[in-house]
Amino acid sequence: MATFSVSSPAVSPPPSRSNRWVEYVVGVGVVASLGALLFCVFRGRIMRKLREGRGGSRKGSVKEEKLLKLRRFEFEELEKATKNFSREYLLGAGSFANVYKGVLESEGEIVAIKRPHADSYTSLDEFRNEVKLLSSVKHKNLVALVGYCEETTGNVRERILVYEYVPNGSLLDYMTGRGGRSLTWRQRVNIAIGAAKGMHFLKY
C-alpha cells in the first residue's frame, strides 16, 4: 500500500490543558473515520489492480521486472542499513509489516524500509504486481517508492519495499502531540483533504 507523507507544519502555540484532550479525541476520530471510509470505498479497486496479471507466464513476469525503473536491493544491504532490523531503527509496526529507518552504506542515503511479515503476500506475483503498481504512482501526497528486495534464502522469502524517508514524523505523532508536535484545526482539515486526494488518485 501507498504511504502518505506529512509536511512539517508551522509551530503553533500549544492548546490549554482544558482543550487539549477534547481536540485530541475529536481530531483522531475525524481522521480515523475518514481514513476507514476511504479505504472501504477504494479497497476493492486497489486490490484488483494488485492482482492483475497473476495468470501471466514466468517469461512475461521477468520482462515486466526488467522494465521497472527501480533499484533492486540486496537483502544483505538492507540488513546493514538497519543494523539487522534492530528496534533502534524501527519507525512503526503493523499487522502487515514493520517499517524501519535505513542508512544505505554506499551513499549514506536515508530511506524507509518496509519489511512485510512472512504471510503478508500469497504469491510472488502479488508482490511483483504491487511493485509495478507503486512504481507507476506519482503524487505529492504519496511517498515515492525507491526500490525493492526480492530474495529467497532457504525457507525464508524476503519481499521488501524501500520508500523515500520522510523526516518530519508520522501523522500519529502530530495527532497525539508526541515529541512536542501539534496541529491546528486548519492543518488537520488540510491533511484530511490531502489524504482524500491521494486515495482518489489511487482509484485511477
From TrEMBL:
EC annotation from Swiss-Prot or TrEMBL: 2.7.11.1
Annotated Pfam families: PK_Tyr_Ser-Thr
GO MF, any single term: protein serine/threonine kinase activity
Metal-binding recorded as keyword: no
Positions annotated to bind ATP: K114
Substrates-to-products reaction catalysed: L-seryl-[protein] + ATP = O-phospho-L-seryl-[protein] + ADP + H(+); L-threonyl-[protein] + ATP = O-phospho-L-threonyl-[protein] + ADP + H(+)
Coiled-coil portions: none
The UniProt record lists the keyword Chloroplast: no
Keywords: ATP-binding, Cell membrane, Kinase, Membrane, Nucleotide-binding, Serine/threonine-protein kinase, Transferase, Transmembrane, Transmembrane helix
Protein name from the UniProt record: non-specific serine/threonine protein kinase
Native species: Cucumis melo
Source lineage: Eukaryota, Viridiplantae, Streptophyta, Embryophyta, Tracheophyta
Gene behind this protein: LOC103485360
